[in-house]
Specification:
The structure holds three protein chains of three kinds. Chain A has helices spanning about 10-30, 40-45, 70-85, 100-105, 120-125, 170-180, 195-200, 215-220, 250-270, 275-285, 290-295, 300-305, 310-320, 325-330; strands at about 50-55, 55, 60-65, 70, 90-95, 110-120, 130-135, 140-145, 160-165, 185-190, 210, 230, 240-245. By secondary structure, chain A is of the alpha/beta class. In chain A, strands 1, 5, 6, 7, 8, 9, 10, 11, 12 and 13 form a ten-stranded mixed beta sheet that branches. A three-stranded antiparallel beta sheet of chain A has the order 2-3-4. Chain A is globular and about 65 Å long. Chain B is an alpha+beta fold. Chain B has one domain (about 55-310): MetI-like (MetI-like fold). Helix content of chain B is about 65%, strand content about 5%. Chain B is flat, with a radius of gyration of 26 Å. Chain C is mainly α. Chain C folds into two domains: about 50-180, no CATH class; about 195-350 and about 365-400, MetI-like (MetI-like fold). Chains in contact: A-B, A-C, B-C. Chains B and C meet through helix 1, helix 3, helix 4, helix 5 and helix 7 of B and helix 1, helix 2, helix 10, helix 11 and helix 14 of C.
C-alpha cells in the first residue's frame, strides 16, 4: 500500500458501483412520478395506444393475409386511436392468452383490453378483479359444438363425456354450473390457448367443445370440414362482450365509453362513413340542426369534456364507420362468419344496441 | 502505527456492507412503492381471504374429492395432489428405468451398450417440452377410439385413456381397471424417459467409480454378472449415485410443472386458472413458489438422510 | 453371419442371454426403424414444413427487411469460415474438415429445392457456402500464417463487434427501420435469446459465485438467498412471475417489452446455475494460488481476475457447457408464455387449420434442429476443454 493510493485497490470497484447506483436511483426517482391525471394523459404523451387482443379469433381480432390486425375488437382500438390521434393506425397490439389478459391490464402493460371479455360482477367489483367495463359491443351466449356424426342433440346427452374448454374463462365456470344443475358428471379438458382446445376437439380427444357462440361460429369457418360440426341449441349463459380498462381511471374509461357510443349513435342517426362528409357539411351550413351539430362537434364542447378533441366523432366515423358497418364488415354478411344481427341490432329494430344522448 | 480507517480492511468491509445495504433498501423501497401505487390504481390489495371463496370451476381429474362449489384453497390442494401423483410415480419409474439403462451400459453386449448410448445422447439433447408435446399431440392423441383399442399385455390404449389390469368393452366404451388419462400418461412417459436418461448417466458414473478389483474378485468367487451388480457393485456405487440423484429428483419435481402445456391439471395449471379467475397474481405466485420450494426441501432432506446411510463410514 | 468380425460375433452371442438380448434388440430396432421410414416416406405430409419454412426460421420478420438478416447471415458465415481456417488452417485439409465441407455442400445444394426455396434464395445460400469455404481456404496458404498472428489478438474483438452489429441489424433503430421484438420469431429468436442470455448471465454468475464465497456476510447471504431461491423454483413459474410482476413493479406504463422481460428472467435463472458451476471451479483452486498472488502484492480484484478465475473457469468448463445446453433447451418454455421462439412458432403454425394434425412432422423437424444444436454445443464445449487443458491441473475426470 503506497501513500499516494489511500483507498486500497480491492475496494475501489465496489465503491464505484455504489456511486453509480446512487446516481441511477436519483435520476430514476424523477421519472417514477406519475402525474395523477390518469392513463389518458400517459397515452397522449406516448403518442400511441396499446391494446390487448386475442389475435387468433376470426371476426374479432386476427391478422389478415397482409399481416394487419382486423376485427370488431381491433376496430374498437382503432376508433379510440382515431379519437385521440386522428390516426387509427397508432395502435400497438399485444396478443394475450386468456390466462394473462387481466394481469397484463392490471399491471399497465396494455391500456385497453379489447378481447371479447364477458362482463360479470366479480370482474367488475373492486373486491374481485377490479376492472371497468366499457359498453357491451356484442351480446352473445355460450354454446357447445359437437360433431354431427355423434348424434348428441342437447346438453344432457353430454353427461359423463369429455368437453374441451379454454383455461381461465367464464366458459369453464358456466359449464361447471350447468352440469351442477343437471346433477350430471362430466370431464373438462383444459388447454391454455383456443387453438389447442379446438385442435384437441378436432382430433377427437373430447366429445364437444364449448365457448361463446360467436367464437364457435368463427372457428368453425376455418375447420377442414365445417359442415361436419354443429352448434347445440342450448345457450349456457349470457355473455355480454366488451372492452375493459382498469378501475379508478375514469378519464380513459369515459373516453372509451363515449367513443363506442359515438359509433352506436351514428348508426341511430343514419350517419356512416360514406355520407359523413355530406352530413358534416350539412351540419356546418345549418345552424338549426342542434343535435347533429352537437354530435359532430360543430358546436358545443362535448369532446373537450372527455379530454378528446372537439371533432372526435367525425374522426371515429371516418376511420371505422358506425356500429352497423363495423358489425357487417367483421362478423356480418360481408364476412365469412355471416352472423345475423340478432340481439346486436339497434333498439329501433328490436335489438339491445342503444346509445345515451350526446349532450 | 494504527491503521487509518480507509486502509483498515475490516472497517472498510463493514462500511461497504452498510452502503450496499442502504442501496439495496433504497431499490427495494422504490420497487415496493411502485407496486403499492400500481395496486392502488387497479384497486387490488394483497390478501389471502379469497382462498375461501368457492372456486366455480371443475378439475378434470383429482384423487381428492373436489367439486366446483369447493373453495380455491381446496382446488389448489387438489392440484398439489395431482403434482404429487406425477412426481412420486415419475420418481419410481424413472429411477427403475435409469438404473436399468445405467447398468446396461456396462454389459458385455456391444449392441446393448450402443443402444443405451444412443438413447441417452438422443434424449438428453432434445428439450423436455418438445418431447412432452410430441408424446401428447403426435402420439397419444392419435390413439384409436375405445372400440378399436390397442391391446398390449396387461395394457389397453385408446383415446379415452390408458387402461391397466384388464378393462372390458361395454357399449363401445372401456370400463373398469386402472385408468390413466391421456394427459397423465403422456406426461409420465415424457418425464420418465427424459429423467431416466440423466439418472442413467449418474448411475453410470457411480458404477464406474467402483474399482475394477471388486468386479474381478466377485467374478473369481463365481458370481454371475447380475448378482455381482446387485450384491457387490451397486451398494458401493450408491454413495456416489445418491447425491447425483438428489439434483435429478428435484429437477423432475420442477419439470412436472410443464404439465400445463398438455392439459394435465397439476398445481401450476390450477394456480393459473385461479389467478385468472381471481386476478390475484402476486399472492398466487408467492404461494406457488413457497409450495415448490417446500417440495424441493422435502426431497433434499429425504435424499440427505439416505446419503448419510450409504456414506463411507470413516473410522 | 460369417462375415461379421469374429470378436464382434463372440461378444454379441457370448452367453445364451446375450444372444437373446441381441436378437430381441435387433428385431425391435429393425421393426421400429422400418415403421419410421415407412411413415416418413409414405404417410407423412411434409408440405407443412415447406410452406412454413420462413415462419419457422425468422418468425414474423417483415419481408421488406429480410435483406438485413441475409446480410447478418453473410457476415456470420464469413467470420465462421475465417475462424475455422484460423483454428485448423495450419494443418492443411485434414479428413474431418473435408467431410464437414462435403456435408455442408450437400446440405446447401440438396435442401433448398426440397423446401421449395425460390431461385434467389437458393443462389444466396450457395453464395454463403462460398463465403464459408473461401474463409477456410484463406488460411490454408503459408503466407497467411504470418498475418494470422497479428489477427489473433483482435479476433475476440472482431466477433464482439460483429455480434453488436448483428444486434443492430436485427433490431433496427439508429437509421434502420426498427423491427419490434414481438416480430422476431423462430430459429432467429431462439438463437438470439440464447446467445444474449448467455453473454449476460456469465458475468452475473461470476458475481454471484464470488458473492457466495465472500467474507462479508451481507453479500454472502444475499447471494445464497438468490441462488437457492432461483434454483428451487420451476422456470415456468419464474417466467410467469417476470411477465406479470414486472408490470406491477415498474412505474406507470414503463414496463419493458415482454421479450426483454423473459430474457431478464432467463438471465438471472442461468446465472444462478452458472454460479453453482463456477463455485465448484473456485473450490477446486488450492489456497496456495491465492496466497502466492497475495505475496506478489496483487490486490484481491487482481488476484481474482488474473490468477484464480481463469483457472476456476477452466475447471468449471464441463459444468458450464452443460448449463449452456440446458439454457438452449429452456428457451422452449418461452412458448408457454406466448413468445414465438422456435417451439412457439411451430405451435402457432400447427394451430392453423390448414396444417391440423401435422404434429409429428413439425415436432420431428424441431427435434432434429434442437438435437443438432445441442450436440454441436456439447462437442464444442468438449473441444474447448481439450484445447484449454493444462497438464498440471486435473479437470473433473469424466467417468470412462
Amino acid at each position: 500500500m503506497d501513500c499516494e493510493n489511500p483507498i486500497p485497490n480491492s475496494h475501489k470497484t465496489p465503491v464505484a458501483f455504489l456511486l453509480i447506483g446512487l446516481v441511477l436511483i436519483v435520476t430514476g426517482c424523477g421519472g417514477a412520478e406519475t402525474s395523477g391525471n390518469g392513463r389518458l394523459d400517459v397515452i397522449k404523451a406516448r403518442g400511441s395506444l396499446t391494446c390487448g387482443v386475442d389475435g387468433k379469433l376470426p371476426g374479432f381480432s386476427y391478422q389478415d393475409n397482409a399481416g394487419k390486425y382486423a376485427g370488431v375488437d381491433v376496430d374498437v382500438c382503432r376508433a379510440l386511436a382515431a379519437a385521440l390521434f386522428n390516426d387509427p393506425n397508432k395502435v400497438e397490439y399485444r396478443e394475450l392468452t386468456s390466462s394473462e389478459r387481466f394481469t397484463a391490464l392490471a399491471s399497465g402493460e396494455v391500456d385497453v383490453l379489447s378481447r371479447n371479455t364477458t362482463r360479470t360482477l366479480s370482474r367488475d367489483a373492486k373486491g374481485g378483479n377490479g376492472l371497468e367495463f366499457a359498453p357491451t359491443i356484442f351480446f352473445d351466449g355460450q354454446g357447445v359444438m359437437v360433431p354431427l356424426a355423434s348424434g348428441i342433440t342437447n346438453l344432457k346427452d353430454l353427461a359423463g363425456k369429455t368437453i374441451c374448454v379454454e383455461n381461465g374463462t367464464t366458459t369453464e365456470l358456466n359449464l361447471a354450473d350447468r352440469f351442477r344443475e343437471l346433477g350430471a358428471p362430466y370431464t373438462p379438458v383444459k388447454y391454455q390457448t383456443g387453438d389447442q382446445t379446438y385442435g384437441a376437439y378436432l382430433q377427437g380427444r373430447c366429445a364437444a367443445v364449448t365457448s361463446d357462440r360467436s367464437q364457435l361460429a368463427a372457428k368453425k369457418t376455418s375447420f377442414p370440414d365445417p359442415a361436419a360440426h354443429t352448434l347445440l341449441p342450448d345457450v349456457l349463459s349470457k355473455e355480454p362482450l366488451g372492452p375493459v380498462t382498469v378501475n379508478n381511471d375514469s378519464g380513459l374509461s369515459d373516453a372509451l365509453r363515449w367513443v363506442i357510443f359515438a359509433t352506436i349513435q351514428a348508426e341511430e342517426s343514419g350517419i356512416d362513413s360514406n355520407n359523413l362528409k355530406q352530413k358534416l357539411a350539412f351540419a356546418k351550413a345549418n345552424p338549426n340542426q342542434a343535435d347533429l351539430r352537437r354530435f359532430l362537434g360543430v358546436e358545443g364542447d362535448l369532446g373537450e369534456q372527455l379530454g378528446l378533441s372537439a371533432d372526435f366523432v367525425p374522426r371515429v366515423i371516418a376511420s371505422v364507420g358506425n356500429y352497423g358497418e363495423i358489425y357487417e364488415r367483421n362478423v356480418g354478411k360481408a364476412s365469412r362468419l355471416k352472423l345475423e344481427r340478432g340481439l346486436n341490432n339497434s333498439y329501433k329494430n328490436g335489438g339491445l344496441i342503444y346509445s345515451p344522448p350526446f349532450r | 502505527m494504527p491503521v487509518p480507517w480507509w486502509r483498515d480492511n475490516r472497517k472498510l468491509g463493514w462500511l461497504i456492507q452498510l452502503a450496499a445495504g442502504l442501496f439495496l433498501l433504497l431499490v427495494i423501497a422504490l420497487l415496493l412503492g411502485n407496486l403499492e401505487r400500481n395496486l392502488a390504481r387497479s384497486g387490488l390489495r394483497l390478501t389471502l381471504g379469497w382462498l375461501n371463496q368457492p372456486a366455480g370451476f371443475d378439475i378434470a381429474e383429482t384423487l381428492l374429492p373436489y367439486r366446483a362449489s369447493d373453495s380455491y384453497g381446496r382446488a389448489l390442494l387438489a392440484g398439489f395432489v395431482n403434482t404429487l401423483r406425477v412426481v412420486l410415480s415419475g420418481l419410481v419409474l424413472a429411477t427403475a428405468l435409469g438404473v436399468a439403462v445405467g447398468a446396461a451400459s456396462f454389459s458385455g453386449n456391444p449392441l446393448l451398450r450402443g443402444v443405451t448410448r444412443v438413447y441417452v445422447e438422443l434424449v438428453r439433447n432434445i428439450p423436455l417440452l418438445l418431447q412432452l408435446v410430441f408424446w401428447y399431440f403426435a402420439v397419444f392423441l392419435n390413439l384409436p377410439s375405445a372400440d378399436q383399442a390397442l391391446q398390449l399385455p396387461g395394457l389397453q390404449l385408446a383415446k379415452s385413456g390408458i387402461y391397466l389390469f384388464g378393462a372390458d368393452l361395454v357399449n363401445g366404451e372401456l370400463v373398469g381397471g386402472l385408468r390413466l388419462s391421456l394427459e397423465l400418461a403422456a406426461l409420465l412417459t415424457g418425464l420418465v424417459i427424459y429423467s431416466a436418461a440423466f439418472i442413467a448417466e449418474v448411475v453410470r458414473g457411480g458404477i464406474a467409480s467402483v474399482p475394477l478389483g471388486q468386479w474381478e474378485a466377485a467374478k473369481s468367487l463365481g458370481l454371475k454378472p447380475l448378482q455381482i451388480l446387485r450384491l457387490v457393485v451397486l451398494p458401493q456405487a450408491l454413495r456416489v449415485i445418491v447425491p447425483g440423484l438428489n439434483s435429478q429428483y428435484i429437477s423432475l419435481a420442477k419439470n412436472s410443472s410443464l404439465a400445463v402445456a398438455i392439459g394435465y391439471p397439476d398445481l401450476y395449471a390450477v394456480a393459473e386458472t385461479t389467478l385468472n379467475q381471481t386476478g390475484r397474481g402476486i399472492e398466487v405466485f408467492l404461494l406457488l413458489l413457497l409450495i415448490y420450494l417446500m417440495l424441493d426441501l422435502v426431497i433434499s432432506v429425504v435424499m440427505n438422510a439416505i446419503d448419510r446411510l450409504v456414506r463411507l463410514q470413516e473410522r | 453371419m460369417k462375415r461379421l468380425p469374429l470378436t464382434l460375433r463372440r461378444q454379441l452371442f457370448a452367453t445364451p442371454t446375450d444372444g437373446i438380448i441381441t436378437v430381441g434388440l435387433l428385431t425391435l430396432l429393425s421393426w421400429a426403424g422400418w415403421g419410421v421410414l415407412n411413415w416418413a416416406i409414405n404417410s407423412a405430409q411434409w408440405l407443412v414444413v415447406r410452406a412454413n419454412a420462413a415462419a419457422l426460421t425468422i418468425g414474423r420478420y417483415p419481408e421488406a427487411q429480410e435483406w438485413r438478416l441475409w446480410l447478418l447471415l453473410g457476415m456470420l458465415t464469413s467470420l465462421a469460415g475465417l475462424s475455422w481456417g484460423r483454428l485448423r488452417g495450419a494443418s492443411g485439409w485434414p479428413l474431418n474438415d473435408r467431410i464437414a465441407a462435403g456435408l455442408l455442400v450437400a446440405l446447401a445444394v440438396g435442401v433448398p429445392p426440397l423446401l421449395a426455396f425460390g431461385a434467389i434464395n437458393q443462389m444466396r445460400l450457395l453464395f454463403l457456402l462460398l463465403l464459408l469455404l473461401l474463409g477456410r481456404l484463406a488460411f490454408s496458404h503459408r503466407f497467411s500464417q504470418a498475418s494470422s498472428k497479428r489477427f489473433g489478438d483482435w479476433w475476440a474483438l472482431i466477433w464482439g463487434v460483429a455480434y453488436l452489429f448483428g444486434l443492430w441489424l436485427i433490431a433496427g433503430g439508429l437509421g434502420l427501420p426498427g423491427v419490434r421484438p414481438s416480430d422476431w420469431g423462430g430459429l432467429l429468436f431462439t438463437l438470439l435469446i440464447t446467445s444474449l442470455t448467455l453473454l449476460l448471465a456469465l458475468p452475473l454468475g461470476v458475481i454471484l459465485a464470488l458473492g457466495r464465497r465472500s467474507s462479508l456476510p451481507l453479500f454472502r447471504y444475499i447471494s445464497v438467498g438468490i441462488i437457492e431461491l432461483i434454483r428451487g423454483a420451476p422456470l415456468i413459474t419464474l417466467l410467469f412471475l417476470g411477465q406479470n410482476l414486472v408490470g406491477f413493479l415498474a412505474p406507470n406504463g414503463l414496463a419493458p417489452d415482454r421479450v426483454w422481460r423473459a430474457t431478464g428472467v432467463l438471465t438471472v435463472f442461468a446465472a444462478a446455475y452458472l454460479a453453482e458451476a463456477i463455485r465448484g471451479g473456485l473450490n477446486a483452486i488450492p489456497r496456495a494460488q491465492f496466497e502466492a498472488a497475495r505475496s506478489l502484492g496483487l490486490s484481491s480484484v487482481h488476484t481474482m481476475a488474473l490468477v484464480v478465475l481463469p483457472q476456476a473457469l477452466k475447471v468449471a468448463l464441463p459444468a458450464m457447457g452443460g448449463q449452456c445446453i440446458s439454457l438452449l433447451q429452456d428457451t422452449t418454455l418461452l412458448s408457454i408464455i406466448g413468445l414465438f421462439d422456435l417451439l412457439g412458432i411451430a405451435r402457432s403454425v400447427l394451430a392453423n387449420p390448414d396444417w391440423l394434425g401435422r404434429y409429428a412432422e413439425v415436432y420431428l423437424l424441431l427435434a432434429v434442429l434442437y438435437w443438432c444444436s445441442c450436440a454441436a454445443l456439447s462437442l464444442g464445449s468438449r473441444a474447448l476443454e481439450k484445447r484449454l487443458a493444462s497438464p498440471g491441473l486435473q479437470s473433473n475426470p469424466k467417468p470412462q
